[in-house]
Each structure stands twice: as structure tokens, then as C-alpha cells.
Amino acid sequence: MRHWLLLLAVALPLRAQLARPVASYDIRASLNAASHTISGEQTLEWVNDSPDTAPTLQFHLYMNAFRNSRSTFFRESGGQLRGDRAAEDGWGWIRVDSMKLEDGTDLTPRLQCISPDDGNPDDCTVAEVALPAPVRPGASLRVSMRFTTKLPKVFARTGYRGDFHLAGQWFPKIGVWETKGFRYSEKSGWNCHQFHANSEFYANYGDYRVELTVPSRFVVGATGEMVKRSDDAKRGLSTYVFVQPSVTDFAWTAQPGFLRFERVFEAAKQTTQEEVAAAARLHGISLEEARLSDVKMIALIQPEHAEQTERHFRALSTALKYFGLWYGRYPFRTITVVDPPYGAGGAGGMEYPAFITAGTSYRLPEDVLMLEIVTVHEFGHQFWMQLVASNEFEESWLDEGFNTYSTGKIMDKVYGGTALPLAVFGKNTWSWLRLPKLTQASLDRAAHVGYPVRDPLATRAWEFYDGSSYSVSSYSRTGVALRTLEAVLGEDTMARVMRSYQQRWRFRHPHSRDFQQAAEEVSGRNLDWFFSQFVFGSRRLDYAVSEIRNRKLETPVGVFEKEGKSETVTAKEARRRDEELARKGEKPQYESWVKVERLGDAVVPQEIEVRFRDGHIERRSWDGTGRWAKFTFTRAAEIESAAIDPGRKYALDVNQANNSRKAAYNARLSTEWTLRVLFWAQNAMLWLTALV
Amino acid sequence: MLPLIAFWSGLGRAWRRKRMLALYWFFHTLCALGAALPLMAAAVPQLGRSRLGDELMRQFDLAWLAEIFAAAGEAAAPSAIFAALVAATTLLLGAVFLAGGAVPLLARGEEPYSPEEFWRNAGRNFWPYLRLSLYSLFCYAAAFAAAGLLRRGAEALWGEGLEAKPLVLAGYARLALLVVLFGLISTAMDFAKVRLALSGTRQSLRACLGSLWLVWRNPGVAFWLWACFAASGAALAYAYVELAARLETRGAAWLAPLVLWQQAYVLARIWLRFAAWGAAAELDPILRPLPAPEPAPAPAPAEAADYQI
Known about the structure:
The structure holds 2 protein chains of 2 kinds.
Chain A: H1 2-15, E1 23-32, E2 37-47, E3 54-60, H2 72-77, E4 80-81, E5 84-85, E6 93-101, E7 112-113, E8 126-135, E9 140-150, E10 159-161, E11 164-167, E12 173-174, E13 176-178, E14 189-191, E15 206-215, E16 219-222, E17 225-232, E18 237-247, E19 252-255, E20 259-265, H3 267-270, H4 273-283, H5 287-290, E21 295-301, H6 309-327, E22 334-338, E23 350-352, E24 355-357, H7 370-380, H8 400-415, E25 423-424, E26 427-428, H9 440-450, H10 467-489, H11 491-505, H12 512-523, H13 528-535, E27 543-553, E28 558-562, E29 565-569, H14 571-583, E30 589-598, E31 606-612, E32 617-622, E33 628-635, E34 639-644, E35 660-662, H15 667-689
Helix pairs in contact in A: 6-7, 6-8, 7-8, 8-10, 9-10, 10-11, 11-12
Chain B: H1 2-15, H2 18-49, H3 52-58, H4 62-72, H5 76-107, H6 115-158, H7 165-199, H8 204-217, H9 219-248, H10 255-287, H11 302-308
Helix pairs in contact in B: 1-9, 1-10, 2-5, 2-10, 5-6, 5-7, 5-10, 6-7, 6-8, 7-8, 7-9, 7-10, 9-10
């Protein structure tokens, strides 16, 4: 009871703006650092907030993804993820030792593994238990469990390396009961997916109180606030108590070598009055609503990265500020960022509620913004995953893609582009060589263009054509699609769309149509053309200017009817008339035309901009439906160039080089490009022949 | 001091061979065109037509490269690779051939340039130099293997640790070792070419081993000679990058000076390459003195003759 009072004390001031708990956990766990196992006991309080009766419970037992090579995760990933390979001696698993109801009914024998996604009989990442009596609508259920978790060697998000431990997806976690009609559910039941190679988040909100016992020499970080620490000097153990209301998960880390730093994000200092007022004006909210709150930032840094500590804090502050101003304030009191050690990169770049892992390297050059990109991105998941808890399994674009879009906007606004590492003896030469900095917008578009469109963005994570299609679609292509939507709607409208969606669905579980609805309501436009082609469809967008012609209008020759008489104009007479006009200083007239083509299967309304040699600019609209269209002009100047989508609204267009065309070939420019390529080829050749 | 004298002498010898410099430049440019043409054919015509071409010149966009590759399609990759391979093979064989012509003229510093002599030498030395190039590959592979051992050692010592620092420092050491070994091997091969050219023999293996032995016995001279050229190359690259960056920001009117500067840089690199052969020729007789001529047999004393008779 004391524990719950403690949680209540932390939760009460925030409760008004937080979620109604559905699945709350009280966990006591201890780490055996030598065997890398966690022994835990937990009490789950689950509220059936649906109108249905629930006859069963389903749990995620995700650590079993690392139990053997026949799990669904291993089959899908081939034992490697994000460049890391599973160690042959690094298996991990979770075992439920007992499961009891509050009245003492032992459920353990009823627990059985199921595979709702692929029917894999060897996968045990989801378990189901039949209840002796179903849970009635509105009723709650308390289930006590004892479990043992063996952490795998780090390679896919979680595990240990040496004495570094990152415990994510480490306890039995209940699935989400979805009543018929909720999101895409056709019938009431559990939404409890197996652990797949590329997705892992969908859970109800709940309040967490977690008691962690570790050897005293370990430095610990976790989701939420640490409210108590007690040391048992005799046994050399320390117990930490963390509490966090209204979250969907709980993760923690422990390592003796961590350097622990704290800073406070002071909202009043980090944001100016003007910035807050601008946000309030843009979103039509009060200044009070637009104002941000102070947040304690905790960084657990590897000693060899100590000089990068402030880079972590700056990135966190930047993310807290802009995500807060744009989408609504971060409602929790803490955010912890973990810097995994060398060799544990697989645990880096991960998001958990109020707890993220970043990623850097020894002596990372200042102009290589990998650390900042990862930190801002993982923090962004507090908004797109934690505060708006869409189903990452089924619609990863709402989670990773929204976050890619948001991260890109912040990085490009605050940091500009990044250099790539091209280090010689630790000194990065990228900037010295004046190589161009790469913006997130450009990197996302390059990924989108470089990989063919094979799947709709709204595809279930394990049903993409392949891993590349998943990652390009879920991250970069969504980023590009949202930038396209932003260009179509306008930056301010898009900002209002994103904030409205975030605020409307905060602490809830939206799906793609909910975002479409928010976008249409806020913008007042029907956006079905966008969503049907690029979100629920896999159309390829490519328009081109294919032809420009200029033809001088000369005096026509032949027989003409003029004032009732027949007149013959010979070629000689026509030439004479033309020369006379020229002598009088009259400019010749040109009949010119531009042909545009639709090369892809996506159809979007287009604007065509035509520039004439006298500086005049004409604009035409085209509904973009036909395969091609021709626009004709008669004017005393030739067409110099033409462009379709001149403002580059449609970043989704897979070839923007063909979006414009000049009437005359620019030989100077092509010569310049040729000479550049030639020079680099000459140098490459000289390096080669230096060896013979 | 000796390496520095050889370095200056090498520069002087190379400077006197301007026609060979021009020939070498022409050949490299031709091969560069061969490698670059497929890329240019795919990319440049479109840029000449598109407004994007101007924009990319001001601010390069990585996405454009992705567009080119996507538009060219997977089918284009084999032909591009084939073109690059043909260009590289032609380049390597041609470079060996031209070196056969150039090295003897650089070695015999004062001899006036004669095209007939150049082409005759090129033909005569082609096979010995080609064999020498193949032997040098073994040497470079050995250098790689040595550096690889260092990497494996570092991995064994620190690979399971939680710190990258020792591995990164070991990586620096490995890179330094590799660069120095490559430099010394390259210097040894220059000596070998000079040895083959001056001796008129075709014994490439003997020349290769002899030159490696020469470098082994005179590591200081070989290292500092290489260091002079490495420092010159680095200084040249620095000067190129700095000036080119300034020219590029001045707009299209400065295109001609930029192109001239680029080609001057390429020529300077070739000049340094020639100078390395010239320096090796300068040092060769000093480090490898020719054996003293055998003494002529002494005339028999007259008395003895009388006695014998």
C-alpha cells in the first residue's frame, strides 16, 4: 500500500493531463550481474476498459525472441539486425515461474505459447492463459507473477555486454484488448503480436512502480523518477525505486562505469517569450498552454565519451524545446539518455518511455551529427510512440516515420546539415574538403528515390517486401511524404495538423485514418488523393517536362480570302513583309509549346511554370490525370525554360531533374560538370598508378 | 641530407622532361575519360537541360545522385563496372609501358629527350616492369597482412572490452604502419625500376629483392626520401583544396582559372611521380656502388721469362 501511495504522490500533480491507467505494474527485480539474469516478481493490475468480457489474458514474453534460432524474430532477421550479429553464446529467454490470481488461483499450468501472427510453433514470444472466470466490462484483475529473465548478449536493442546491462522488453507484459470497431478490429480480442525483427511497441498505459536491486557498484538509470535508494552494505547490494505514471513500458540500465550527469531543462530560459507567443498564435492556444515545463535531464555517459556530455544535453534540450513548442509540452518530469559502451551499439538508438539510448563513438568529430540525430530522434519517440501510442507493429509509419519527419525538421532548423566521418588519424576532413553538408531532408529523399516503391506506408511491419522496404517506407519515405503534405498544405497548416493530431490522440491509440481525419479537419481539404495513393497505396510519383519548341511566326504563304477577294502571297512577298516589319522595329512573334508527361502511376494536380526570354513568366495548372499535356503560347519571345512543380512541393517525385527543361542545351554547365568528374577520375587514376 | 639532395635532384630531373610529363598527363586524362564517360553520359546531358544543374552547382544534393542511379537502373551497373575495369586495366598496363620509357631517361639525367629512345625503352622494359609490378603486389599484400596482424592483436587484447579508445589508437598505429610500409615498398620499387633500366637486364625478381634489401639496409635514407615526397604531396593537396575552394565561390567567371588550377594540380602530381624515379636514380649509385673493376693481371717479370727459357 505504501508503494502505491508513493506512486500516487508522484502521479497526482500530473494526473489531470495524463492517461487513465489500464495496465499498471508493481515490479521487484534483482539483477545477477554474473549470470546476466533478472529474477522478478510483479503484480499486474489490469482494467477491462472495454464493453466486452475477456475470457483470457495474453502476454508478451519478448525475451524469448532470443531463445533460439527458430523464433520468429530470428527467422525474420536471420540473426542480425542493424548491422549487428547475434553471438552464438548469447541466447536470452524469459520464463514465467508462477502466475496467480489475487484469490490464490494458480494459472501457471494454463499458460501456453501462441503465435497469432505466423503460426510458428517454435515461437514463444506471446503466451495466453485461460481465466477461470472471464473479466467483466469495467472490472479489474490483479495477477501476481514470478519470472526469470536471461538477458542475451547485446545485438538487437537489449541485453548485456561485459558489465553493461540494458533491460528492455524484460518482463511479462500484457497485450491490448481491442473491442470490435476499435482501430481496425473486426472482432473483439487481444492485440498481442509476436516479437518481429522490425517492431515491438503497442501497449496500454499504466502506472509503474519498479524496485530494482543491483550490486552497489552499478550506476542505474530507468524510466521515470528515482524516489528511493537503499543500500545493503553487508550484501553489497543497492535497491532503487522508480515510479512513472501513464507510460506504456519500462526499461532500465545498469553499469558500474557510467558517468552520471544531471541538468535541468529550464523552460523559461530555453524558450523566449516571442517563441512561446508565436506558438500560441499559430495554434490558437493560450500562452499558458504553449509554455513548456522544466524537465530533469539525466545522462549516463561512458567515460571515454565524457567530452561529449554537453552535446547530449544540448540535443536533448533542443528536442524538448521544439517538440514541446510544436506538438505540446513534454508532460513527464525526467528524461534519461543512455550512452551504450563500445560493442553494445545494438542497444543504442532505442526508445522507451522517459528513457532513451543514444549512440556515439570515441572522439566523434564535432561536425558529424550522428549523436545529435540519434538523441533527437529517440527523444521524439516520446511523442510518436509513447504519448501517441499508435500500433508500431501494424502501422510503423505513424511512429518511426512521423518521428523521422519531426527529427529532420529540428535537425535542419537548429543544426543545419551533417558531415560524414572521413577521418584521418582522428581528424575529420569532410569539412576541410568543402564537401557538402547533408541535410535530413536530402538524406531522406535520397533513400526514398534510391529504393523502389514496393509497399504502402501503412503496411504491417513483418509484411513488407523486405527489410529495406520496411526501413525506407517506415522512416525516410514517410518523412518525404509528410514534407510533401506540408508543402501542399503550407507550413503553418501542417504545424496545426501535427499538433492537433498529437493533442487529440495523446495517451490514446490512433490509426492512420485518425491522422487523415485530423489533417482534413484542420486544413479543411479533402486529402483522400494523398492518403489513398501514398499511404494506403504504393503509387510512384514522377512528372517530367519532355519537350519545348519555339517556332517563329512568319507571314503565311498561299491563297487567302481577304475582304471577299482572293489573294496569293508568294514566299518572296512573305519575306518582304517580314523584313518590313523588322525594319519598323516590330518584334517577331513565336508560337511555342511545352509538353509535360506523367511517367509514374501517381496522379497529382500540377502547376507548370514557363519562363520566356524577355523575362515574362506564365503559369498553368494541370490536373495531372492524363499521360501527357501540351501547353501552347504565342508571344513576342521564345520560351527559355519550363518547369513542372516549380516550387518542388512534391518531394515524393522520384526524379526532380526531369521536372524542368531548358529550350537550349546549357553547354557551359555540362562542360563544367564534365570537367569536375574528369578531375576526380584523373586523381583516382593517379592513386592507382602510384602503386605500379 | 642525402635524401633531401636526392629529392631536389629528382625534381630537377623531372622538370627537364616536360614532354614526358605532357604525355603522362594525356594518357591519364584519356583513361579518366574512359572511366568517367558512362557516368557523364547518364548524368550530364540531363543536367545541361535541367534547371537543377545550376542549383546543384551552388548546393550539391545527394538525392540527385540517387535519382541518377535509380534512373539508370540495376541493368546499368554491370556496364558501368565493365567500363571502369577496362579503364583501370588499360591504365595499369599503359602506366607500366610508359614507365619503361620514362625511367631510363630520368635515370640518365643529362641525356637529351628523344621520342625514338623513349618508345624503344618503353617496349624493351615493358615485360620486366610488368613482372616487377606483380611482385610489388605481393609486397603490398604483405604490408596489408602485417597491418591485419596488428588489428587482430588489438581485437584479441581489447575487442571484448567496453572501450573503443585502445582499438582506435591501435587503428591509428595500424594506419601509420600501413602508410609507411606502402611508402617504403613504393620507394623500393622505384629503385628496382632504375636498377633494371641502368643495368639493361631483364631480371625483375632480382631487381625487386635487391631493392628491398637496399631499402632494408638504408631505412633512414629510404624513409626520409619517401617523407619528402609525402610531405610535398600533402602540401600540394592542401594548396589545391584551399585555392580551389576560393575559386569555386567566385562564380562561373572563374571556371577557367579553376580548371587550369585542377590540371596544374594533376600535372604537379605527375611531376612528383617522375621526381621519385629521378631521386631513386640519384641515390642508386651512392647506395649501391658498382663493384670495382677487377685488377688487370700484372705483367710477368722479364727475368723470370729469361729464367724459364
